[in-house]
Specification:
Layout: E1 2-7, H1 12-23, E2 27-33, H2 45-48, E3 59-60, H3 63-68, E4 72-75, H4 79-92, E5 96-98, H5 105-115, E6 119-122, H6 128-144, E7 149-156, H7 166-179, H8 183-186, E8 187-189, E9 203-209, E10 215-223, E11 226-234, H9 238-251, E12 257-259, H10 261-265
Parallel strand pairs: 1-2, 1-4, 2-3, 4-5, 5-6, 6-12, 7-9, 8-9
Antiparallel strand pairs: 7-10, 10-11
Bound molecules: nicotinamide-adenine-dinucleotide (NAD).
């Protein structure tokens, strides 16, 4: 059995993970961690996710004790919280699976520092479908050629705090690379006012927010007289939790380094 700690355990993703870990006979939940002052601290993790049986793992803020028995930690929290977690993991050389998006420089630096001493899987999207979408998107941009304009549209629930989504950012990087464009110079986030005609070398990225949409991403390749759209729709959060758990099993025992979900899934 793999000993797993969940960081951000009281959040939407954290709860989905706690539930999955508790139901998987190959996994043992050793810690459910969340921020100091969270209303659910001290609650049994199993009861917290709506299961009948307690498991005697309480939601805790204590990283030091929480990580002591873990073989791997899975993180879906916030960039600041992830930074602190990764620093602690580096001290322990503890493998990690990181799903938090909107990472700042401090978080990215902490990620690289951990990857120097332990294996880490970081992915802005852990779903199988999205990882296949990324692979297809690169190929599609190459195949349609320069005449087709590239636009990206994403939609998420109204609680999402960062935009565009980490998945859309990654999609933009991949298609920019496939087209030979500099991603920062090519990206145009939304359009308003007298923006003029679309530049040939821009990639429009548009973030819709509303309701309880788990996550939709569409790549639009618009050419003369036709357009191709590749869309992925996430129906529930469990897909990300399943992917993250799969990554956790995969990462334990690997050499130190930063890995992505395509490597976990064997997509080349
Ligand atoms: P959420 O707000 O529901 O949950 C975040 C949790 O982190 C909360 O319980 C919060 O209390 C906790 N937290 C905040 N500060 C903390 C700290 N200092 N220490 C420990 N815990 C702390 O958000 P969510 O919808 O579960 O998403 C979490 C993150 O995961 C976001 O960045 C989101 O974009 C990302 N996400 C990634 C994927 C993926 O596949 N990579 C999928 C879904 C969401």
């Amino acid at each position: 059995m793999t000993a797993i700690a969940v960081h951000g355990a009281a959040g939407r993703m954290g709860r989905a993970l706690v539930e999955l870990v508790l139901e998987d006979p190959k996994a043992r939940l050793v810690a459910a961690l969340d921020r100091p002052g969270h209303a659910a601290l001290g609650q049994d993790a199993s009861i917290m996710v709506g299961r009948a049986e307690a498991v005697r793992i309480k939601l805790s803020e204590d990283l030091v004790h929480g990580l002591a028995d873990a073989q791997v930690v899975i993180d879906f929290s916030s960039p600041q919280a992830t930074t602190a977690l990764l620093k602690r993991c580096a001290q322990l050389s503890l493998p990690a699976v990181v799903g938090t998006t909107g990472m700042d420089d401090a978080a990215r630096h902490a990620l690289d520092a951990l990857a120097a001493v332990a294996p880490v899987v970081a992915a802005p999207n852990f779903s199988i479908g999205v990882n296949v979408l990324w692979a297809l998107a690169e190929r599609a941009v190459e195949l349609v050629g320069e005449e087709f304009d590239i636009e990206i549209v994403e939609m998420h629930h109204k609680h999402k705090v960062d935009a565009p989504s980490g998945t859309a950012v990654r999609l933009t990087e991949l298609v920019a690379h496939a087209r030979g464009l500099h991603v920062a110079r090519a990206t145009v986030a939304g359009r308003t006012g007298q923006v003029g005609a679309r530049r040939h070398d821009e990639i429009g990225v548009h973030a819709l927010r509303g309701g309880d949409v788990v996550g939709d991403h569409t790549l639009v390749l618009a050419g003369p007289g036709e357009r191709l759209e590749l869309t992925h729709r996430a129906h529930n959060r469990e897909i990300f939790a399943r992917g993250a758990l799969r990554a956790a099993y995969w990462v334990v025992g690997r050499p130190p380094g930063l890995y992505n979900m395509a490597q976990v899934l064997g997509i080349h």
